[in-house]
Every structure is written in structure tokens, then in C-alpha cells.
Write a structure and sequence with these properties.
This protein has about 120 residues and is an all-beta fold. It contains no helices and eleven strands.
């Protein structure tokens, strides 16, 4: 059974940076589509970024070049480098995986890591 564990969240000042990590256990990580989503308090979950098995990437419109998703298959880890953070980026960030391409949906989720941007 695949499990995902996020880390790297915390409190950061506006304009600052954070790098989130998500480690996968079980399964064949290199074949998964991996993604980051976020959910701010009182708002719907929002797509942040994804990366496939070929390291092709995609980003939500709000990212505007500030975030970078990457993966390190040898460590079963996906990263989200976040720069130029602002208060609107405050949210719980979740890691997700598509472990079965036939399903075509994110079927494994982590528990999330809190990111708070505040002075």
C-alpha cells in the first residue's frame, strides 16, 4: 500500500521561500504522476502543480513562475520549491499520486503540511 508523507511546512515571512517534500513508501514511485494541491481555510482544494514519470510538469495559473515541482526517484521524493510567498499562499499543502494510470485520478493522498505566510 502506497503512503505519502509531507514535510517542510512552517511559518515564513512574505517574500520568503519554503521547500516542501513528499516521501512515498510502497509501490513503484518512478511510474507515478505526483502532484501538490492546497486548501486554504474556508476554501476549496486547489491544484498547485504536477509532475509525471518523464518529469514533465504542469502548474496552476496562480503559480506564475514562483513554484517549482521536481522529483528524485532514487529517494521516492517529490519536492515543491516555493518562492516569493505571500499571504494568499497560506494553506495546508497536500501531496497526491496517481498510482494506477488506468484510473486517471489521484488515488493516494498525504495528510498535508501547513504553510503560513505572515509577518
Amino acid at each position: 500500500q502506497v503512503q505519502l508523507v509531507e514535510s517542510g511546512g512552517g511559518l515564513v515571512q512574505p517574500g520568503g521561500s519554503l521547500r516542501l517534500s513528499c516521501v512515498a513508501s510502497g509501490g513503484t514511485f518512478s511510474t507515478y504522476v505526483m502532484a501538490w494541491f492546497r486548501q486554504a481555510q474556508g476554501k476549496e482544494r486547489e491544484y498547485v502543480a504536477s509532475i509525471n514519470w518523464s518529469s514533465d510538469t504542469s502548474y496552476g495559473k496562480f503559480v506564475q513562475g514562483r513554484f517549482t515541482i521536481s522529483r528524485e526517484n532514487a529517494k521516492n521524493t517529490v519536492y515543491l520549491q516555493m518562492n516569493s510567498l505571500n499571504a494568499e499562499d497560506t494553506a495546508v499543502y497536500y501531496c497526491a499520486a496517481v498510482t494506477n494510470r488506468a484510473l486517471g485520478q489521484y488515488n493516494v493522498w498525504g495528510r498535508g503540511t501547513q504553510v503560513t505566510v505572515s509577518s
